[in-house]
Amino acid sequence: MPPVYWSDTYRIGHASIDQHHQELVQDLELLQAAIATADNRTQILGLFDEWLDQFARHAQAEESLMAHLRQPAGIAHRHAHCAEHADFLHQAMDLRNDIARGRDQIRAMETLSMQLIAFDLIRRDFEMIGLLLREGLVLED
Ligand SMILES: [Fe+2]
Ligand SMILES: [Fe+2]
After folding, report:
1. Which ligand is nearest to the CA of 58?
2. How far is Cα 42 from Cα 84, in angstroms, rounded to an integer?
3. Is residue 28 in a domain?
4. Which parts of the sequence belong to the Hemerythrin-like domain (predicted)?
5. Which tens digit of pLDDT belongs to each residue from 64-108?
């Protein structure tokens, strides 16, 4: 399966979050390509570590926005969304550590990419923006 590619259909209507998503997807493409061509493992791990930091900063930015949600639906969303960020990050870190141990993880990388699109970019983040708008919260930074 080819790497996931950025599509403007993933935009959720918040400039800085959309920018983060685009960079996360594009950098994941580079990481997948490095793994698929069996580049030097030190280089792959360096790219992976940068990507994990990037994802963690992105999750923090969204969590700062969600901290303003006050209504029950918004609070429930925040709990679920933050837990999913943590689960996703742990899964990505496990994968990074598998690669460090020399395991072939091309399939697992494909799954991780699909999850990034399916869970983070599309499902939860669209829902988050809808809840922020419903509570009248300012979206742009
Ligand atoms: Fe998210
Ligand atoms: Fe996101």
Report:
1. 2
2. 28
3. yes
4. 16-105
5. 999 999 999 999 999 999 999 999 999 999 999 998 988 877 778
